[in-house]
Amino acid sequence: MKHYLHSLIKIFIFSFLAIIVFFSGCKENVEQTNGSIISTRDELTDPNVTPEVIWTFPSNNSTGPFSTFNTNSYHFIVQFNKLMNLNTFNTSTIKITGFNTKINFSIYDGGYSTQQFQNVIKFYIRDATNGNYINFEIGKTYTVEIDSTVEDIHGKRLLRKHTFTFTPEPSLRVRYVNPANGDSVTFSDYYYSTNVYLSFNSALTFASLSSLHISPTVSGKWTIDQYNPSTTYFIPTIGFNFSTQYQISADQNLTDKYGNKLSQPFISTFTTGKFKVVTTSPSDGAENVYISSGNSIYITFSGSVDPTSVASAFTITPSIQGNVYASGSQLYFNTTEQLTPGTKYTVILGTTLKSKNGTPLSEPYMFSFTTEEFRVNNTEPYQGYSGVSPYSQIRFSFNAPINQASAVSAFSIEPAVTGNFSFVNYDNRTFTYTPTQPFKYGTRYTVTLSTSMKSTGGSALKEPYELQFTTTPFQVTSTTPSNNDNYSTANYISVWFTGDLDTGTVRNSFSITPATAGSFSFYSNQFSFVPSKPFLAGQNYSVTLSTGIKGKDGSSLQSPYSFSFTTQAFQITNISPYNGSTDVSRYSSIYVNTNYTVDQTSISAAFSISPAAVGNLYTSGNGFYFTPQNQLSANTSYSFTVSTKLKSTNGDTLLVGQTSTFKTGS
């Protein structure tokens, strides 16, 4: 019996330990990193796990102050063991007590995500009336109650209601100061700035501001942030001195809006930087600095510059004419003459340069930059361009004014083309070469500028510059009719070329199929062929121009050029009265219009009318009329037909006959 009891006890103990181990294994491994609590277990999305609160900040029954609570920061954090459905978090499921005003809260996760499901939730509390951030009140205890009806990602409710209580601000204190204690900062003199401020843990009154001080004294005033009365700014009227240590202090008798006093005096210090150069343009060591007709060099300082001190403090080597002046915290030097290409310039600012409050540069400042080499900026035609008109000019533009005589001597073109030089004198950076005769068609030209090409300052091209372009070949540019025109109404052929024609080469180089007699007329870059008789209707014609056609300069077509077109078929284009017309006048004539001149002898055989009516047929241009000798019968339907016996004067037969009806009036 004892043995049996002993065995039972052993089984019970073993089972109990196994249960402990099992539940221990399910507990979240919680790690603290930089003051934040994170979860390391993988049950956040496990549907079998019931949600519960595993951590809060502040913790239950804790007392501050907590350094993490600064201006507009979160008010508390709750961490769950599951991803929670944030849509179930509202004023009925989250109760926050301790505030004296009606409040609302908003929720953000640590990454400011808008995701619906989170397990670490930050709560931000706002005044329900105006939406402003609310500070925790001094000496107040707050309670947060999370109802068990909040749900996780699977719709599971909290294991149990969770409540925690904390006292975040036991006494009046400065939560944040800018600049931070011990900071080195750049405050410009005469610079209107609100970068000095103190943030308290309670709302202040204007009476509180008399307890705030800055030493050494700076002209200005403290003011309270209208949206967050716990924050006060110092607004200087002149500014802070350079290289000076300042102390911000708050007396121990400083009182907030509710009568709370600082537990001890507050002191923080910061040091302003030197009056110095912050940036330059061009930057120190810059190379290939672009040259413009009026370069501007500017220098930015850590404070406003005394304009009267700049002229004597600024030097540039090599010397160049220009105007130097200051505006605010910047010094400008605008050149009135061209910077020399490929030249290193050095700018020196002496210690006679001062800020507006009289602070000089602590030491001379020097920076250098090098301008770009003398070079071609752009060309016309563009480099490598093909299809250049033979009537084009050649134009070169440079990055600096040019020595005109050197341009003439440095210029060469192959194949040789005589021409004249002209120069754009308003900035003297461009010259143009105009050939006395057009360039040859379909020819590649190479223009070279040798290193004897110089700027007015004597800078030469570093290496020869070659411009290559190809003129358009002598070729057909357009035709009438156009190629593959399947409905041509033109009764002539015109061909345009890229250049003037040698008219004597056209006739023997022109052929048309079917063979058609005709005559030629010529213009500068065009010829026309007019057939002796109109083109046949509905006929396909093919035109070929052989390589025997030449331009005036002797250039030939590179290959034969062919195009084809089809003329319109002989057809009716309009009738009157229109088919289906009613209440037609009994005195009306019948008119039929075609797209070609009608052969009058074919009309009588092609035209018929029913009921029969006696009348006269005669042509008019591309149409014909039937005019009754007597008025037509009243209220009668008539039908007239034009058959395919109708012909044009060119012998073409009507493509399709047509019948039309109309009804007369009374």
Task: Please explain how this structure is put together.
The protein has 666 residues and is mostly beta strands. It folds into six domains: 30-167, Immunoglobulin-like (Sandwich), CATH 2.60.40; 174-272, Immunoglobulin-like; 277-371, Immunoglobulin-like, CATH 2.60.40; 376-465, Immunoglobulin-like (Sandwich), CATH 2.60.40; 476-567, Sandwich (Immunoglobulin-like); 572-664, Sandwich (Immunoglobulin-like). The chain is built from four helices and 50 strands. The strands form 13 sheets. Strands 3-5-8-7 form a four-stranded antiparallel beta sheet, with no helix packed on it. A four-stranded mixed beta sheet has the order 4-10-9-6, with no helix packed on it. A four-stranded antiparallel beta sheet has the order 11-13-16-15, with no helix packed on it. A hairpin with a 3-residue loop joins strand 39 (518-522) and strand 40. It is flat and about 125 Å long.
Write down how many β-strands occur, each being a DSSP E stretch of 2 or more residues.
50
| Average pLDDT for all residues | 89
The total number of structural domains is 6
The quaternary state of the protein chains shown equals single chain
- Architecture of the largest domain, CATH level 2? Sandwich
Task: Name the CATH class of the largest domain.
Answer: Mainly Beta
Question: Biggest sheet: strands side by side, in what order?
Answer: 3-5-8-7
In which range does the helix fraction lie?
A: under 10%
